[in-house]
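#structure-requests
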Amino acid sequence: MKVPEPRITPLSKEEWTEEQRKFLEPFYTTHLYNITGTFGRHWEASKKFGVWGTHILGPTCTLPPRDREILILRTGWLCQAEYEWAQHVPIGKSCGLTDAEIEQITQGPNDERWSSFDAALLRAADELHADTFIGDATWKILSGRYNTEQLMDVVFTVGQYTLVSMALNTFGVQLDKGLKGF
């Protein structure tokens, strides 16, 4: 974790407004995810941010879930966002990533065990992280399989999770109980 304790403490259930209660109560079991409680401190922004995040993680995203999770995990790793990593390792596994592949994500696109296409996904995340641009060689590989919307969703996914990682790291969002970081 970038900081050992929250810079912005998560909103507690007792602090919810009536609007927050109507929205958050269905997701509340024994606790609310720390990210949700923290982002809830800026409710108007959180509502709008949630719409975009729902596109990336929901059915309107055109990427296959496994590919999406490769991009998210690589972005979280590059940003050293331990919370993001911890949340998405189980999601990645549920989308078909193996423990070995998750470990390979930390090594990047040059690990020779990757297929050409998976390496291109990782390279796209690396290039967007470093240069805010996907290079021609990577774009060519991705466009050999992906349509226009999918190519756009690659950029949107890496961009979304770069922003999420910046917020998590800066706000000091701590790991939820039961999650394992790096």
